[in-house]
Amino acid sequence: MSEEVGFTSMASTGAAGAAPELGIGMLGYAFMGKAHTNAFKKLPYIMYPPVAIPRLVAVSGRNEAAVTEAAKRYGYENAYTDWRKMLENDQIHVFDNGGPNDAHAEPCIAAAAAGKHVFCEKPLARTAEEAKGMLDAVEKAGVKHMVAFNYRFVPAVMQARKLIESGKLGRIYHWRAVYLQEWGMDPKMPTTWRFQKAVAGSGALGDLGAHIIDLARFLVGEPKRVTGMTQNWLNERPSGDDPNKMVPSDVDDAFVALFEFENNAIGTLEASRFCQGHKNYEVFEINGELGSIRFNLERLNELDVFYRDDDPKETKGFHNTLISEGYHPYWENWWPHGHMIGWEHSFVHEFHHYFDAIVNDKDVAPYGATFEDGYRNAVICDAVLEAASSGRTQDIKY
Q1: How many beta carbons lie within 10 A of that of residue 282, not counting itself?
Q2: Mean pLDDT in residue range 271-277
Q3: Rounded distance between C-alpha atoms, residue 109 and residue 5, angstroms
Q4: Mean pLDDT of the 60-87 span
Q5: Mean pLDDT of all residues in the chain?
Q6: Within a 10 A sphere around the Cβ of 124, how many other Cβ atoms?
Q7: How far is C-alpha 20 from the chain's CA centre?
Q8: What burial class does residue 46 get, using C-beta atoms within 10 Å of its C-beta: 0-12 exposed, 13-18 middle, 19+ buried?
Q9: Among 137, 254, 276, 379, whose Cα sits 20 to 30 Å from the Cα of 52?
């Protein structure tokens, strides 16, 4: 059972050292700030020869001491406590927004108006209406825009896309996906912005569910209607400033949804931050007329594959395939087969794709997620919440 479906490398053909610099201005410096910066530093010598050299021009955040320390730690040339001032720096070509969800719309819209290319963490916005304003802004400005749905750029996921495109699975019938974590279960854990609707927009849905919604669209197609259910088990949590003070926790702790796709496939999606034992368990399975694919993010260098016509009777069933050969997506840039890569390397592939689109004026879509994808994701998230609230199936209307 060969997985040798072709993948065209996006590596630059230019001479080493000829790649242009792209000045990076980043909002936020915590979890995603670290992940993005790690990718910027690896990219020039891993995706070689590079399409661009990221220059770490500036980082911004509200806490002066913390953002100054982040600039020192990561190697940014400047630190700002006001992203507006940062955007005045004409050395910045790309605005990278890794801030909380309520800090996505205004800075991204301002960056686009200033002529910066815009990269934004997921979910793109708290609501579809907010996301539409962001989409309109980047399209009006004519800048390259991308949403950080980085799991598209895990080699095994991209290989799954290529297998589907090749027709190896035939017509797709089923999509099922779960994204389970346990970190939200402790009632004594001080609250964060991820548990506050005004900041996050939603809970497990926007935090985890947005990823599997994006993968459903990326691998199967557009959903046309959705039914949903949400649950909140801890409606208050200790304040981050005073552990003796309780504050509202008004987002979904978990959701489940049923999708019907435009191609008549059906799907189930579930995400929760209340699943003991699960650290970052994102699993999907696709069933088609000619075969099936199964993926587990915690074993991200593997695909479980079954082909109806190629499978020997003696070993009929799923076969575990190691996605580490030189012909697999992105692997020509890494190590000999069997020498594994990890979660953080999806960002290297993602930014390489984005910078290639900027430098060589290519389309970010269909392999990268644009603000159009981010907007459509937000429409679906809103529909899940409305379905859960009303108890009625919702049509997806973009």
Answers
A1: 23
A2: 98
A3: 39
A4: 97
A5: 94
A6: 34
A7: 26
A8: middle
A9: 137
Instruction: Give the pLDDT of residue 16.
Output: 46
pTM of the model: 0.94
Quick: pLDDT tens for 214-249. 999 999 999 999 999 999 999 999 998 888 899 999
The label of the residue with tokens 């004519």 reads: 142
Amino acid identity at 202: S
- Measured distance CA(48)–CA(14) in Å, rounded: 10
Cα(68)–Cα(45) distance, integer angstroms = 27
Q: How far apart are the first and last CA of the chain?
A: 40
Amino acid making up residue 267:
G
Q: Return d(Cα 278, Cα 378) in angstroms, integer.
A: 26
Amino acid, res. 26: M
Instruction: Count CB atoms within 10 A of the CB of residue 11.
Output: 16
The answer to whether the beta carbons of residues 302 and 325 sit under 8 Å apart is no
Using H for helix, E for strand and C for coil, what is the string for the chain?
CCCCCCCCCCCCCCCCCCCCEEEEEEECCCHHHHHHHHHHHHHHHHCCCCCCEEEEEEEECCCHHHHHHHHHHHCCCEEECCHHHHHCCCCCCEEEECCCHHHCHHHHHHHHHCCCEEEECCCCCCCHHHHHHHHHHHHHHCCCEEECCHHHHCHHHHHHHHHHHHCCCCCEEEEEEEEECCCCCCCCCCCCHHHCHHHHCCCHHHHHHHHHHHHHHHHCCCEEEEEEEEECCCCEEECCCCCCCEEECCCCCEEEEEEEECCCCEEEEEEECCCCCCCCEEEEEEEECCEEEEEEHHHCCEEEEEECCCCCHHHCCCEEEECCCCCCCCHHHCCCCCCCCCCCHHHHHHHHHHHHHHHCCCCCCCCCCCHHHHHHHHHHHHHHHHHHHHCCCEECCC
The Cα–Cα gap between 165 and 170 comes to: 9
Q: Which domains does the chain have, with CATH numbers?
A: 21-149 (3.40.50.720), 151-390 (3.30.360.10)
Copy the structure tokens of residue 29. 């410096």
Cα-based distances in Å from 269 to 124, 282, 369, 396? 19, 11, 20, 16
User: ∠ CA(308), CA(313), CA(316), 5° rounding?
Assistant: 60
